[in-house]
Fold:
Amino acid sequence: MITVLRIGHRIGRDKRITTHVALVARAFGANKILIDSKDDLIEKNISSICKRFGGDFEVQTGVNRKKIIREWKDVIVHLTMYGENLDESVNLIDKKKDLLIIIGAEKVPQDIYEIADFNISVGNQPHSEVSALALLLDRYNEGKWQEKKFNGKIEIVPRKKGKKVINKEHVG
Ligand code: SAM
Structure:
């Protein structure tokens, strides 16, 4: 079970990037995203993607980050450019345990660095929570996210050229 906790989400300003974080979480094998600010629009958009493209991904906004972190029993990873090397750290995570991945938006409070079991960097340059999350999830599940079946109403069939989409939305 993998949960992503997005902290410092600013409604309006972070709408697009937090949506992308949620889409990456879903597509790359996480089970849930928790967002600290209440944002009905993001909940609606992500739930709509899940309804159409399938899977059992959950989205919840307006969560109490302190409570979630305090009550988390298993592994906590904080993604930060100040952390330790991805490839070395990812192998140290106990995969039998549930995983909470924390990513920031604005400046991340110091207590997150202290409470995390692993502060992991995806390179030590500043880039994006979207890319950092994608690479961590890919390394963590060793690329197996690509095999996941979503069984959605909409299914894309890979093509050399053009687009082939199976749309079961209006069937039955
Ligand atoms: N300025 C903020 C700070 O000092 O905490 C971080 C802003 S950054 C755009 C947003 C998030 O992207 C970070 O909280 C971190 O989770 C992620 N991030 C950015 N670069 C990263 C890197 N090289 N490795 C891991 N995570 C990274």
User: Anything to note?
Assistant: The beta strands are 2-6, 32-35, 58-61, 75-85, 99-103, 118-121, 154-157, 164-167. The chain has a mean pLDDT of 95. Residues 86 and 122 are 6 Å apart (CA to CA). The first strand starts at residue 2 and ends at 6.
